[in-house]
Amino acid sequence: MFLNLIQIVFFNLFVWIIKPSLALGLSLLYYFTYSTIVFTDFILSLFVRDCDLRNKNFINNLRIKVNELRPYPGVYTSATDMITEKGYNLEIHQILTEDGYILTAWRMYKNIKKENKYPIILQHGLLDSSWSWFINNTNEQTLPYILADQGYDVWLANNRGNKYSMGHSKIPGVCYNKKYWDFSFDDIQRYDFKAIINHVKQASQKEKVIYIGHSQGSTQAFAYLSNHIDFQENLKCFIAIGPVIYVKNSKSLFLQFAVKSWIFEFTKIIGIPYFFVFDDSFNLKIGALCDMIPWIYRKILFTITNLICGYPLQNKIDLKKFGFMVSHEPGGTSTKTLVQWMQFYRNGTFSYFDYGKSNNILHYGQSIPPKYNVENLGQLKIPKYFYIGTKDVIADEKDLQKTIPLFDPSTLQIQMIHDYAHLDYVWAVDAHKKLYPNILQNIEQNQIF
């Protein structure tokens, strides 16, 4: 009798007090965060060109005059215009995956002199986009420009959910539709990798492609090939820069903090389905502020980059271009994808998404998620080239000691790049001297039919 009374009291306490209080607290947190973003966006709009679209009041007219004196070069140029203005041909391709997601790929070339050569796919990393390959934006320093100038057919792919691949054949209003964002790394490797390869082959009318993956761009290839080893027949060679399978020993301070604080799991619970997916106008405002007040914003944003990816003391990023960078970056992804990367770190395994014991049984027929069949990667006979930075805190040495033995050493070449961190492969001002000549050599070696 007494126990029943206690149960009734606690049940009513939970239903009428605890649960409503939690719901109210989360709602208040959500609306406070949303209001803060809207207010910040309004303040920023007073300083950048977005106000041209608003009513011409005194403050806006004053701001326009200020911007005429300091136009923030590169910040307001769209990524595609930036490419075409340099004299390159650009095609925008829409790619439909088997599960209905619409991906975007940029096909870029100058004059395809090497018509009998294999097309080249550049696949970005986590939270990046196809634009991340253009950070330096000079013909001498930018890998896509270098390849196009050599006469190659260059394809820059975008995974689902980043700022350039926001579409679905059946789900409407994808920006705010949680069903659209209910994808993980498992879906990226299962559908996006295959769809991109097959589309490039069909559009270029070639039997094979050369695949270059940065960070997660390499991981999604490893994952898909571990389950479909015969798919290697579609690849002439595989170039992995900053290759990642295991991240248990990552020294990224941000990653360590995110794992310990469960920040992405909490973000998912309160109903925020995506991360770092910003409206273009917001990126433009941040980019303009980096140029307006560089001593504050460049330092803050560069510090955040350091915490995530790590940089040597003598960094290789041109901070003068930071406003230009953040006006287009990051690309973003689903919160669920980031949660899975936290699981990779926390569990020390390369496994499918962990839904919890009961839901794992529904999804996989077992209480723990299955691991990827990485032992099959030893059957990957195509030429492979790994480029690894000595300062890379994401692709850590201890984790690489587990990764490298998975592959056939007779078809694998590894090159260490001194003093390179995880973004230096793409962002460094000297990558065109320390890295890209070797990649060009790898490509030339595999351009023989």
TrEMBL record:
Ranges in coiled-coil conformation: none
Entry keyword annotation includes Ion transport: no
Keywords annotated in UniProt: Glycoprotein, Hydrolase, Lipid degradation, Lipid metabolism, Membrane, Signal, Transmembrane, Transmembrane helix
GO molecular function: hydrolase activity
Localization terms from the record: Membrane
A GO term from the CC aspect: membrane
Pfam families hit by this protein: Abhydrolase_1
Annotated AB hydrolase-1 domain residues: 118-252
One biological process term in Gene Ontology: lipid catabolic process
Main location: membrane
Family, per entry: Belongs to the AB hydrolase superfamily. Lipase family.
Identification of the protein by name: AB hydrolase-1 domain-containing protein
